[in-house]
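Posting here for the record, re: magnesium ion.
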Amino acid sequence: MWYAIVLGGGAGTRMGAGVNKVLLPLRGIPVIRRSVEIMARHADGIAVVCPDAERPLFEDALRGVDREILYASAGETRQTSVRNGLCALPDACDYVMIHDGARCLADDGTILAVKRGAEAQGAAAASTPCVDTVKTVDAQGIAVGTPDRSALRCVQTPQAFRRDLIVRAHEAARRDGFVGTDDASLAERIGIPVLLTEGSRRNIKLTTPEDLAVAGTYLENENPLPDLRIGSGYDVHRLVSGRKLILCGVVIPHETGLDGHSDADAAVHALMDAMLGAAALGDIGRHFPDSDERYRGISSMKLLDRVCALLREHGLRVANADVTIVAQRPKLASFIPAMRRNLAEAMDLPPDRVNVKATTTERLGFEGEEKGISAQAVVLLTRV
Ligand code: MG
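Prediction output follows.
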């Protein structure tokens, strides 16, 4: 299993923001969340290393990330922080990536290359060719040497290792009192060959306020589309006698009602499925299984509240919703204003962002034969 250690421990004094730089928003999303989300695409779990005092802020910033997240305490130095991260890994982890939380522009290509490198070689680090000429200097600032830059590489994170190798390298460094500026150097000094894989020049480490501006420009150019998600939902319930007919939370007088484990509000079920679908969070069956006694007879409006809360946790909200109810009878027109009001209130939206409409099927099909009622919904989600 692959895990990633993401370091969020730096005080970030050069950023001058008075807060940990990885908690700063970059185009509305905290830097640490961007870094963790990109690593989460390539790892089974993430160990986030942060100062204990800031842990609630990190938990807030990372709420809803779709991966196991472990926390470890930041140490005095980067190296101790990594060591604490290594100690937090579960036994099942056999490969680990180590990544600076301030490098939130790492791309899939860089990460895949470093993982493949570690799987082949045991240790690998992302790097780029050195484009500037590099000089060595003496204490007076006089150039004393110009190394051949074709033999030089600028090294970034992620760096990836077989777990046992990097643990051994860290133990040796601690024993010998060696402090390195990256993890690869700890491996190199005990003879572990580190393969340098191709990184990207945009994988910058956000250090100064200018870096934040540069990163913002990269993101702007990369993704000119706003973060919009669309989802659709569909549901059917059977009409039976002895049940209330409830649609969009409105009780409608009728000789039959919809049958189901909950209140069988097919319109709200379709709406919730559209919301979960747009957020890529599965469906209501997964969140509220009908095998669960807690949901017997429950008002679907209560479940809608929970789905709204779930979206908020994922930083999403509904922009608008459109629900279509397909029923031969009863006539629903006079109930539609109350339905819209109910849904708008539950989703915390102005009523003009919620539409409910009803149609018949000209007596065709199960709806037309009044055996059941179906509902369809489409929603658009935006990032909060
Ligand atoms: Mg249903």
